[in-house]
């Protein structure tokens, strides 16, 4: 950058601010102002040429000399600079914008331009040797602030963290920032180049210009420092930690004005030391819908993208590209050195291939910057350095801990990696040592500590595995996690919050790894079968249906005859059937479910039977066999009662209420569904929850539909929103999807299209995330109905045809009749009466055959409308009258209201206006709520009209209106 120069010394002042470029320090009224590196570069550029227009191009070329960036980057950092200066507040004006041209610094400046020349303080202290602040740091602003505050209170501050995390970068940046407060007296002692502990004190003395004339230079060193105010930076101390700790302790005792900043993988553990654990950079979470802008707001992604750009790769990131970057950052745990090395590979391999190479652990050998210390030229060198500092016991424990994927507990470590020669005290002592040396991270989850190796450290340790011990270690690991699943799996449905569930989510990573090993070339199939069977209910509860299907199939295919009729086969057959059902509709699910039920009945256990009968009930519903579903539901209810287990009984109420609802027995359905909802929201460990959900969680959405049909539209809406809210809070995807399906139906029936669309978007997102493709097809069908009702029947009809075909192909029929009704209404709106009549006849026959009688009255009404659009025939009147009779029989007042409106319209067309009014008023008297819904507003308008203006049905919206 071009900067002004001068002869006189001094800082540069404007308003309440003082700027010293050499120290890259901006202060307001003597207090340092926290300002990002780019914003500070902008300020220096502007004050270097006061009252001079600097174009945007000139500024961008100065601030980002080797990187192509967009103008938005300049605007972003300029906004941050103005905010820090308070530009525009209380009449203050520092920077003005010349539209279309650039920026100009307009505030009066006092002081010498020599303040813009770096190195003034260095002249005052000729032994200062700090390197210039390194490349712009990302995501370390809060670390710098915290460390700066600690150095003002503690004589020694140790930045502790794993190799490659960025300790040296942060220390040098902090030292540069604080050097001004020490009048430039800041000295960096890089102990990484030393291997002999006896050279530590002489090396520091030499850097301070103290003659080294004897074997013991420490007295001279302490005498020199005694009255000095100096910042000492001790870099890379882990291999000399005892010697450095002793030296630092002596300096603290002898020189009260000296401050020592230490970087090490292990703390010094001395009096007066403040230990600062430097974490890796935070990474964007897994979210398939996260945008590039959001992903790049995370420090790890931001750093990776900047390093790619700095390597000369043109960067124009799409959302998909950014998600690959987020994935790479997660794989590298946000480790700064690893991100730097990986970013250098993008030019040669591209983003996708770089991510693939990481999966092969090739990143350990990637070479970094030429001027990096040897121990940081590759990840392999960094880890070699750390590994070489360990004792034999620590190396053994580290190598064996690599069997764990992600987090593990002390109990898990003891159960899995202990050997006769590695007892509990030795193991726990080694784990403490590895934590102290920053090779193992420790985090508390409630009262439980959990430990984790960074992925790069784990990859290194795996490469050091001894082949002979690996098989026994892997078998021990798999057996432990089978016991863990059997012990804690039933807890899952009782956990209602993310923090409660997090340890279980973390544990499932080890289950996956154990399954991969067990069914691999060198694995143990018997261990794998037991583990897969134990994992089935947990996969179900976590809505991980693709994994449940995969491992169930794998285990069943590997089973020998000795597993026939076993509990393992029962679990796996159930898991396979349930997963196929939810992923693909009804396809291929029945044989597995039937086989599972045979085994359960043979074992004679009621809970085992319920675990299969519940999914069988859902299977029959989904395949459109509502009559068989009802029979199965009665069995579910009976078996559930026999268990005397509250959550199982609740599930029985739900299955029966759900089937009664679709079968049109609305009164009995409501009783069962309300009984399911009345159960304890957090049951004890419950075998009845095996199928992956609770009856209470599922009943709300179906009850909302039931309430609307019974004529309680407001209660239905409240119940729908409550069910969706509770399912979202429980964060169980399958339960949420079922609640959304019920809620969307209610919103559509009420005419609340905005709420319907909002929840359709939610359903598509959540169902797509878990590969629940039938739910996505239903959601698209609901979306098509909205298109029809908003005046685009052609597009809506085309979309509905495709959705219904997809659902038929996957034999997912539970909502096809409802979507068929929407399609027929669209045909009526377009005047395609013949096709509409053909489809409505087939739909009526289908309802009679399959048993989803809840839609029967509406189909009869629509048939009457189709016939009435041709002429006001007796057949049309007969269909609508039949719809009213069927509605009354099942107490479906909302269907009755719609049919009554249509009948009133027919009577009005024949001049029988009083009869029409009487018909409507009789049914309207039955409603105590919902007066702002479309159906009730239309009916009320018609009932109040008794003039000469005829009443007709406007086909495009299926709503009664008056023709002027």
What structural category characterises the helix and strand content?
alpha+beta
Supply Rg.
36 Å
Strand order of the largest sheet: 4-3-2-1-8
How would a crystallographer describe the biggest sheet?
5 strands, antiparallel
| Measured distance between first and last alpha carbons | 76 Å
Mean pLDDT: 83
* Tally of helical runs: 42
Determine the fraction of residues in helical runs and give it as a percent range. 55-70%
- Please state roughly what percent of the residues sit in beta strands, choosing from under 5%, 5-15%, 15-25%, 25-35%, 35-45% or over 45%: 5-15%
Q: Based on DSSP secondary structure assignment, what is the total number of beta strands?
A: 18
Q: Segments where pLDDT lies below 50 for 5+ residues? A: 1-10, 112-123, 682-691, 947-964
Q: What's the shape?
A: globular
**So what's the oligomer here?**
single chain
Short overview:
With 964 residues, this protein is of the alpha+beta class.
Question: Would you mind describing this structure in some detail?
Answer:
The protein has 964 residues and is an alpha+beta fold. It has 42 helices and 18 strands. The protein has a 5-stranded antiparallel β-sheet with strand order 4-3-2-1-8, with no helix packed on it. It starts with 11 loop residues before the first strand and ends with a strand. 50% of the residues are buried.
Keywords:
single chain; 964 residues; alpha+beta; five-stranded antiparallel sheet; five-stranded parallel sheet; 42 helices; 7% strand; globular; disordered N terminus; disordered C terminus
């Amino acid at each position: 950058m071009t900067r002004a120069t001068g002869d006189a010394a001094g800082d540069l002042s404007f308003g309440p601010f003082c700027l010293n470029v050499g120290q890259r320090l901006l202060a307001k009224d003597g207090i340092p102002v926290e300002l990002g590196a780019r914003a500070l570069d902008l300020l220096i550029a502007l004050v270097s040429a006061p009252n001079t227009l600097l174009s945007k191009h000139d500024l961008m070329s100065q601030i980002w000399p080797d990187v192509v960036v967009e103008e938005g980057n300049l605007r972003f950092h300029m906004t941050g600079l103005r905010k820090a200066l308070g530009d525009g507040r209380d009449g203050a004006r520092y920077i003005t914008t010349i539209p279309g041209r650039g920026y100009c610094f307009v505030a009066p400046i006092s002081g010498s331009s020599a303040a813009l020349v770096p190195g003034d303080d260095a002249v005052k202290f000729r032994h200062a040797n700090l390197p210039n602040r390194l490349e712009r740091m990302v995501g370390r602003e809060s670390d710098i602030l915290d460390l700066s505050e600690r150095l003002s209170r503690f004589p020694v501050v140790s930045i502790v963290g794993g190799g490659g995390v960025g300790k040296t970068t942060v220390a040098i940046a902090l030292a540069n920032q604080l050097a001004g407060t020490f009048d430039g007296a800041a000295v960096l002692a890089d102990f990484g180049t030393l291997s002999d502990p006896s050279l530590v004190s002489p090396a520091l003395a030499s850097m301070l210009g103290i003659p080294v004339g004897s074997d013991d230079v420490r007295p001279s060193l302490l005498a020199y420092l005694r009255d000095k105010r100096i910042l000492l930076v001790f870099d890379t101390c882990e291999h000399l930690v005892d010697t450095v700790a002793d030296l630092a302790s002596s300096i603290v005792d002898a020189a009260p004005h000296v401050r020592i900043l230490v970087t090490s993988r292990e703390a010094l553990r001395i009096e007066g030391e403040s230990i600062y654990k430097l974490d890796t950079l935070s990474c964007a979470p897994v979210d398939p819908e996260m945008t590039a802008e959001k992903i790049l707001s995370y420090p790890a992604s931001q750093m990776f993208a900047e390093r790619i750009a700095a390597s000369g790769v043109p960067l124009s990131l799409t959302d998909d590209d950014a998600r690959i970057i987020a994935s790479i950052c997660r794989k590298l745990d946000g480790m700064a050195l690893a991100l730097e090395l990986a970013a250098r590979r993008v030019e040669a391999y591209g983003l996708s291939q770089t991510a693939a190479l990481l999966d092969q652990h090739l990143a350990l050998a990637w070479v970094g910057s030429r001027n990096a210390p040897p121990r940081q030229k590759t990840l392999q060198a960094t880890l070699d350095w750390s590994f070489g500092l360990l004792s034999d016991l620590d190396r053994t424990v580290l190598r064996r801990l690599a069997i764990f994927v992600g987090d593990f507990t002390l109990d898990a470590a003891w159960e899995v990696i202990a050997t006769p020669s590695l007892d509990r005290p030795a193991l726990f002592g080694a784990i403490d040592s590895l934590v102290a040396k920053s090779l193992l991270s420790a985090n508390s989850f409630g009262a439980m500590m959990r430990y984790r190796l960074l992925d790069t450290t784990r990859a290194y340790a795996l490469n050091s595995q001894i082949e002979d011990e690996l098989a026994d270690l892997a078998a021990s690991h798999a057996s432990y996690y089978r016991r863990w699943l059997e012990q804690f799996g039933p807890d899952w449905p009782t956990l209602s919050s993310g923090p409660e569930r997090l340890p279980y989510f973390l544990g499932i990573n080890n289950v996956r790894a154990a399954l991969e090993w067990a069914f691999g070339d060198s694995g143990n199939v018997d261990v794998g079968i037991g583990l897969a069977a134990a994992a089935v209910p947990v996969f179900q509860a976590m809505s991980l249906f693709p994994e449940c299907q995969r491992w169930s199939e794998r285990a069943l295919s590997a089973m020998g005859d000795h597993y026939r009729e076993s509990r393992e086969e029962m679990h796996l057959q159930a898991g396979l059937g349930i997963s196929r059902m939810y992923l693909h509709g009804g396809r291929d699910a029945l044989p597995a479910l039937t086989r599972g039920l045979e085994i359960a009945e043979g074992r004679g256990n009621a809970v085992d039977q319920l675990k299969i009968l519940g999914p069988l009930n859902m299977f029959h519903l989904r395949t459109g066999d509502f009559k068989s579903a009802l029979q199965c539901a009665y069995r579910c209810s009976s078996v559930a009662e026999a268990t005397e287990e509250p959550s199982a009984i609740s599930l029985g109420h739900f299955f029966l209420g759900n089937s009664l609802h679709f079968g049109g027995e609305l009164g009995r359905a409501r009783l069962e569904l309300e009984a399911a909802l009345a159960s304890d929201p957090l049951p004890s460990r419950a075998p009845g929850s095996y199928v992956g959900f609770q009856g209470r969680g599922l009943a709300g959405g179906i009850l909302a539909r039931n309430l609307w049909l019974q004529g309680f539209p407001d209660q239905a809406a409240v119940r729908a929103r409550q069910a969706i809210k509770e399912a979202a809070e429980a964060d169980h995807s399958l339960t949420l999807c079922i609640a959304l399906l019920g809620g969307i139906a209610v919103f559509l029936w009420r005419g609340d299209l905005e709420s319907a669309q909002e929840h359709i978007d939610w359903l598509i997102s959540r169902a797509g995330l878990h590969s629940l493709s039938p739910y996505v097809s239903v959601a698209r069908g609901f979306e098509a109905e909205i298109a029809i009702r908003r005046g685009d029947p052609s597009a809506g009809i085309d979309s509905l045809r495709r959705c219904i075909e997809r659902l038929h192909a996957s034999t997912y029929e539970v909502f096809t009749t409802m979507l068929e009704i929407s399609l027929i209404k669209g045909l009526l709106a377009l005047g395609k009466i013949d096709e509409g009549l053909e489809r409505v006849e087939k739909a009526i026959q289908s309802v009679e055959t399959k048993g989803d009688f809840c839609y029967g009255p509406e189909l009869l009404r629509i048939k009457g409308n189709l016939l009435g659009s041709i002429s006001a025939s007796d057949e049309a009147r007969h269909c609508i009258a039949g719809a009213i009779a069927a509605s009354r029989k099942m107490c479906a007042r909302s269907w009755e209201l719609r049919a009554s409106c249509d009948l009133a319209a027919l009577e009005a067309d024949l001049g029988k206006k009083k009869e029409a009014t009487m018909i409507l008023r009789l049914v309207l008297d039955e409603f105590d709520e919902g007066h702002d819904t479309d159906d009730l507003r239309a009916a009320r308008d018609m009932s109040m009209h008794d003039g000469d203006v005829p009443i007709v049905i406007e086909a495009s919206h299926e709503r009664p209106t008056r023709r002027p």
